[in-house]
Write a structure and sequence with these properties.
Layout (H helix, E strand, L loop, with lengths): L9 H26 L15 H14 L6 H27 L12 E2 L3 E2 H28 L2 H24 L9 H16 L2 H9 L12 H12 L3
Antiparallel strand pairs: 1-2
Helix pairs in contact: 1-2, 1-5, 2-3, 2-4, 3-4, 6-7
């Protein structure tokens, strides 16, 4: 008996892509909330989605759906496919903007800091859960939404994503906890300030000249105090 090939409409893949991209964003944000106790909008774009998770998850769904009865093979292929996508994405972003958004150099069994063994295992587990658990759940939810509303939702998501991608092509999302360059710059700046005399550090950090304190009625006293702090040790 020949198995009938399953086909889906365009909106099926669009909604699946954004759903997985949003789950990936929640995963990364949750990690930083747990480890750094801070909310950090991860990724190149400003919106609540990480396209690498959407693209990787979509590829796994398309390629590994026929292997639903072979979990070990799904796990190993998920490791290989997602690690390959992560390595290429890291290389591409660095070539495009000269910035690294992640670096696994401190992890065991890493390759050029772009991928590592622990990340590959996590991707393998995630891909297995996606194929065996999340995809069937998504298909049930998809069928419950009327087609016209699926189309409207797709158009809204695509319009937001295109606008976000256009803006971030010029000004990508960077900063502390997001990209490695910004983290290094913040660390270096903090080190420089700590090594400076107090007065110079105040001026660099705030852009306020110490002499402005002279405008205060007690300016002479504050100015002498500031100059004393600014004296080299």
């Amino acid at each position: 008996m020949t198995r009938k090939k399953t086909t889906h409409e365009f909106d099926y893949y669009v909604l699946l892509f954004f759903g997985l991209a949003f789950i990936g964003w929640l995963w990364e944000v949750g990690l930083y909330l747990a480890t750094e106790h801070a909310f950090i909008n991860r990724g190149v774009y400003r919106g609540p989605y990480l396209p690498i998770y959407g693209a990787g998850g979509l590829a796994l769904c398309l390629l590994l759906r026929p292997l639903r009865r072979k979990p070990v093979r799904v796990f190993l292929l998920s490791m290989a496919l997602c690690s390959g996508l992560e390595y290429f994405t890291s290389w591409f972003l660095e070539r495009l903007w000269g910035i690294r958004w992640w670096d696994y150099s401190g992890h065991a069994w890493n390759l050029n800091g772009r991928i590592c063994l622990l990340g590959a295992v996590v991707f393998g587990l995630g891909g297995t859960g996606l194929v065996f658990l999340l995809l069937p759940l998504y298909e049930r939810l998809y069928q419950r939404i009327a087609k016209k509303w699926r189309i409207v939702l797709c158009l809204i998501l695509l319009a937001m994503f295109i606008a976000d991608a256009t803006y971030c092509a010029v000004r990508p999302n960077t900063g502390r906890g997001i990209s490695m360059v910004e983290e290094a710059a913040v660390t270096a700046n903090a080190t420089d300030l700590a090594a400076m005399p107090f007065g110079q550090a105040w001026q660099k950090a705030t852009g306020v000249e110490l002499e402005i304190m002279q405008q205060n009625p007690e300016g002479s006293r504050w100015n002498r105090l500031a100059r004393w702090w600014a004296m080299p040790a």
